[in-house]
Amino acid sequence: MSDHKAVVLLSGGLDSTTTLAIAQAHGYSSYALSFRYGQRHIVELRAAEQVAQTMQVAEHLVADINLRLFGGSALTDNISVPRDREETTMESEIPVTYVPARNTIFLSFALAWAEVLQASDIFIGVNALDYSGYPDCRPEYITAYENMANLATKAAVEGQQKIRIHTPLIEMSKAQIIQRGIELGVDYAQTSSCYDPDEQGRPCGHCDSCLLRARGFAEAGVADPLLETSAT
After folding, report:
1. Are 99 and 139 in contact (CB under 8 A)?
2. Alpha-carbon distances of 206 from 25, 69, 100, 131, 213, rounded to whole Å
3. Which of 39, 92, 158, 220 could link 178 by a cystine bridge, Cβ 3.0 to 4.6 Å?
4. Which residue(s) pair with 8 in the sheet?
5. How far apart are CA 73 and CA 127, in angstroms?
6. CATH of domain 5-231
7. Report field, pTM of the whole predicted structure over 0.90
């Protein structure tokens, strides 16, 4: 196992799983961090646990926080998840599936763990193309957070650490992400992308995330193994 450590935010979705594979391909010993944050479904956490085990991360932590206290999102409140939206509509507004300040909160936990681990690298699977409506997925946000992070920790202020926020997917299309993941041996049957899965964890096929995932696999010219697994 490499001594070159990185904290990788792992939701159990397609993007974060590919990000983990990229971090490992670059030689990092990966410490995966997931969150039980009050989301309406936990299938993504089961997916994250399976991915972390399969990909043999150095350690996998699940942090408990409760963003349901604040609500304000279809993922944490009694708000309907949008279904069957046109891509132009997805791109024109910040969707109700946006969880207020979620990436800022998640990155702050990652920053704390990175300081304890004496790791200078944090990986997050944000994407500015397919999720252009999310303000905390933009390159300028990541740059600003990285600048702040290097003012925020004892290790950084004392010159022992310089935090780098890696966003390997930020300018990739969903098809390019899938193609890269396949090259790295990612098993996408283990991932979960749906915002509104059923009680068995099967994807709805109609939310924004399902539609973007379906488009990505279609453009990549490969079948989604998750759908094949769900059908059996």
Report:
1. no
2. 33, 27, 23, 16, 11
3. 220
4. 32, 123
5. 19
6. 3.40.50.620
7. yes
